[in-house]
UniProtKB/TrEMBL annotation:
The lineage of its organism: Bacteria, Bacillati, Bacillota, Bacilli, Bacillales. InterPro entries: Bact_transf (IPR003362). It comes from the Bacteria. The chain crosses the membrane at residues 12-34. The keyword Transferase applies. Pfam families: Bac_transf (PF02397). Keywords: Membrane, Transferase, Transmembrane, Transmembrane helix. This is Sugar transferase. Belongs to the bacterial sugar transferase family. Residues 7-188 form the Bacterial sugar transferase domain. GO terms for molecular function: phosphotransferase activity, for other substituted phosphate groups.
Length: 212
């Protein structure tokens, strides 16, 4: 009952309550983001959602325009304290997770949920997905989730996927409540923001604007 209906109803309710604050935040942050390098305020990333459906995920832009795409050996995005791609306002947005706030609009549209696995990139075809990857997209992706609440960027991609499957198998109202409170705690204490170690071998550099 919760997974099929109540979770979506709560997403809509929370999204509507948050909407005035989101609009206010957009009005406040937009000039700072634009004035630093005269680039766009938002980064609209193509992601895979429920059952692999592609949608545009909204974020405040935290990187310079045309910043290279740098990845760890496990294909996860590199996040470092001295990442040259991140703007000054972008560092603040990432530290506080405010760059993710526009995704409440995705929640209202039905692309995402407040809580769930982070959405997949679209670089991999659905035909090549394994069982774990299919399980992850059997629910709506979330603004935050089990990994973001407890580990953020401190664990490898493979471990994140295993945790996502645990969440999918154990979705409940109380688990979602625990994740929300733990997310607040993690953000306030600025825990596990960056992956500071990266091997030279296996880094992929492309011409993408901003990925996280």
């Amino acid at each position: 009952m919760y997974k099929k209906l109540l979770k979506r109803l709560l997403d809509i309710l929370i999204g509507l309550v948050a909407l005035p604050f989101i609009i206010l935040l957009i009005l406040i942050l937009s000039p700072f983001i634009y004035l630093e390098d005269r680039g766009p305020v938002f980064y609209n990333a193509e992601r895979r959602g429920l059952n692999g459906k592609v949608f545009k995920m909204y974020k405040f832009r935290s990187m310079y325009v045309n910043a290279p795409d740098i990845r760890n050996d496990d294909s996860s995005t590199y996040n470092g304290d001295t990442d040259f791609r991140v703007t000054k306002i972008g560092r603040f947005l990432r530290k506080t997770s405010l760059d993710e706030v526009p995704q409440f609009l995705n929640v209202l549209k039905g692309d995402m949920s407040l809580i769930g696995p982070r959405p997949n990139l679209t670089t991999k075809s659905l035909e090549s997905f394994n069982k774990i990857e299919w399980k992850r997209i059997s629910v709506r992706p979330g603004i935050t989730g089990y990994n973001q609440a407890y580990f953020r960027n401190s664990i490898p991609q493979k471990e994140k996927y295993i945790n996502d499957c645990y969440y999918v198998d154990h979705i409940s109202f109380w688990l979602d409540i625990k994740i929300i409170f733990q997310t607040v705690n993690t953000v306030l204490l600025a825990k596990n923001i960056n992956t500071n170690s990266i091997k030279k071998k296996g880094i992929e550099i492309g011409n993408h604007n901003d990925r996280k």
